[in-house]
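Predict the 3D structure for this chain.
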Amino acid sequence: MKTLRIHSLPLLCLAASLWLGVKPLPAQTFFENNGHTPRALGLGGAHLVAAPDPWAAAWNPAALAALREAQLVINPNFDYRVSTLGVAGFWPQTGGWGLTLMRLPLGAQQVDRLSLAWGKSPASFFSLGLAVHGNRFVRSSEADHATFTFGVLLHPLGGRVPVSYEQAAAQNFNAPTSPYRFALGLQAGDLSSNEKLVKSYYKASLAARLGKRLPSVFITEEWRRREASTQLGLSFIVFKHLALFSGVQDLHEPRFACGATLMNENHAFDFVYSAKERRVIGGLSLRLGSSPAMRMQRHFARGKEFAKAKDYRAALHEFRQYRVYESDNRKNAELLAELEARVGREDRRVAELMAEADSYEGKHEYISAALSYLQVLKLDRRHHGARLRLERLERHIDIYATQLYRRGVQAFEDG
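Done. Predicted structure below.
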């Protein structure tokens, strides 16, 4: 794991340098605005609610909310040159972030696109995301142009499936399955003030994971230039190290593709055959850092340590982080409810102590005020207001103690 962390940066730089030197993609393309990524090809373009990876930054930023780790992905085009490169990371408090570089066709032109995106789940039943795309037209006099993509995912049966669910399904890293039991997606892509340069498009998606050992089904309807197309995809895990997927786009003139993913705990290799081009395209994704299972265990262990030390606020924070990875754990839900009740009682006591200390300060009883602030810090060790007031009281306490000392000496001398 340490070796992966050390060598990921040089690998990223190497891939970026290769990408900068690639030739434009061929004029014939499987998808007009989906680029040459294996998952997009293999799932027939219905990949918007598939396994989250850095490409969500380019196509559906709301899917970044389902990330649970850091990833690096590299894909070539049909000339076997690096054409797409992406990195993504996840933080429980802020959500998922993704950055991608790719060269893709837009109509008769080729565009170099840099996408920066964010996705988060504000509640267990929906996620949202926003992406900003910088577009540089290849061999064109058109000026650089920025577009935006906004996406929403509704998952009424709960958030991303828990880590324990994926382990029971023999699911390894970056398997091409749906991260939700059931999800509906709405997306508005390439929004801009200048429709002449880049045309906007709109998509509605559905994904259903039929069971732990059963397939995932993907359906997407796309509207672009007043034309609609349907995209269908299907994937399933054969065993822990192999998953198969296939897809078809445009039911009026079907275009078929199929693929396979070879995967272990830290790597996933995609191989996709496109029936239109009659060629195979491949891609590599790498996990950077700890797995979701390791992160989950770390938060749980820290929460237990803080609870044992009676630092209930820190324990509450860690168990909330744990819930992100294991949302269906009833024992954790009960523990969270108990910790929230304890912290609520502490908050009320803290408010009383702060008011009491403020009253003591008004009476110039600085030592009593300081003792109240110390009690606040005993309950909430990170209470910023109590720390600041203690620092301000230090000078008053020194003066007050000096005066008491002098009064005592004077009383002693006076007999």
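The first strand starts at residue 70 and ends at 76.
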